[in-house]
TrEMBL record:
SUPFAM superfamilies registered for this protein in UniProt: Nucleotide-diphospho-sugar transferases
Protein name: Putative glycosyltransferase EpsJ
Keyword Repeat in annotation: no
A Pfam family annotated for this UniProt entry: Glycos_transf_2
Every Glycosyltransferase 2-like domain range: 8-135
Entry keyword set: Glycosyltransferase, Transferase
Organism of this sequence: Ruminococcus bromii
Domain of life: Bacteria
GO molecular function, one term: glycosyltransferase activity
EC number(s) from the headed UniProt entry: 2.4.-.-
Length: 322
């Protein structure tokens, strides 16, 4: 790679005509100019397909894919299939990015010789007002083991795919699971399991728009339980390739079960959904959870294992963990 390498930006698009122009403008106006901008119209029922074609007429760097609706994962996979850049960046179509994001992240990738670069994120409302800005304390480089631990605990590395730049050769054979919510959780651990070096930078270049009618902004849906399946798969992967972190992975999995049950109870979800979450408790003894979980959290976890529904109702009453 050199300073003029082509970088592919993949934007999956569905029913976002209100936000799409702001998103595409933020990519078109990047200070790094050698871009391949892939707009994947995932069978959008609104004006997005025409908007995509109009954008392509104005900028020769834009490629448009029109396809039958297959969901976010399928759209991203379609974009990766035709991407010809040496690096790939994902941007969700209701979000937008700083004009220097690609240039800055690519400079870091070259300087550190890293496979992935992760930047900070500004969580904003629909008007662009900052809600929160979680970030790391310092710029640093993580090796494969360090990166895997951080993605398991959702620490310096988050599950989101969209605040990162990836070398194409690293991810081109790792497809997103079609039809799944929490598709990032299914995908990210596989990427960091292969990455030699990951650069984590303090700068916040990505603007994540928190909107009420987004997939994750809606009330509790049974599809949210896909995250538990993703955690199980990640535990199996970690046990095989990173056994030192297996207890940690199982602990996070059980903590996720408790959180999802709290959310389900808060939303008055149907009994079969609660029972579905309870089913995951059979995995609690697969690892030594209490090597990782300590203090008050260990007490809560023991209560949850003994009385799952009652414990989650109590935590909700006390506003613990939600």
């Amino acid at each position: 790679m050199d300073s003029k390498s082509l970088i592919s930006v993949i934007v999956p698009i569905y029913n976002v005509e209100k936000y799409l122009e702001r998103c595409v403008d933020s990519i078109v106006n990047q200070t790094y100019r050698n871009l391949e901008i892939i707009l994947v119209d995932d069978g959008s029922p609104d004006n997005c397909p025409k908007m995509c074609d109009d954008f392509a007429k104005k900028d020769s760097r834009i490629r448009v894919v029109h396809k039958k609706n297959g969901g976010l994962s399928d759209a991203r996979n379609s974009g990766m299939k035709i991407a010809s850049g040496e690096c790939i960046v994902f941007v969700d179509s209701d979000d937008y990015v700083d004009c220097n994001m690609i240039a800055k992240m690519y400079d870091v990738m070259l300087k550190d010789d890293s496979d992935v670069v992760s930047c900070g994120v500004k969580w904003v409302d629909e008007n662009g007002e900052v809600i929160s800005e979680p970030t790391v304390d310092k710029n640093e480089i993580l090796d494969t083991n360090e990166a895997m631990l951080e993605i398991i605990i959702d620490g310096k590395l988050k599950q989101h795919v969209w605040n990162k730049m990836y070398k194409t050769e690293l991810i081109q054979d790792i497809l997103f699971e079609k039809g799944k919510y929490h598709e990032d959780v299914f995908w990210s651990y596989q990427v960091f399991g292969k990455a030699r070096k990951t650069s984590v930078i303090v700068d916040s270049f990505y603007y994540y728009v928190q909107r009420d009618n987004s997939i994750m902004g809606c009330g509790f849906s049974e599809k949210r339980l896909d995250v538990l399946e993703a955690n199980r798969q990640r535990c199996d992967y970690v046990k095989r390739y990173f056994p030192a972190y297996y207890d940690t992975a199982i602990s996070i999995y059980m903590g996720t079960c408790m959180y999802q049950m709290q959310c389900a109870l808060h939303s008055k979800a149907e009994k079969y959904i609660i029972d579905n979450i309870k089913e995951n408790l059979k995995y609690k003894n697969k690892g030594n959870i209490f090597n990782y979980v300590k203090g008050k959290q260990a007490v809560w976890m023991k209560l949850y294992f003994a009385f799952p529904k009652l414990t989650c109702l109590l935590r909700n009453c006390l506003n613990v963990g939600v």
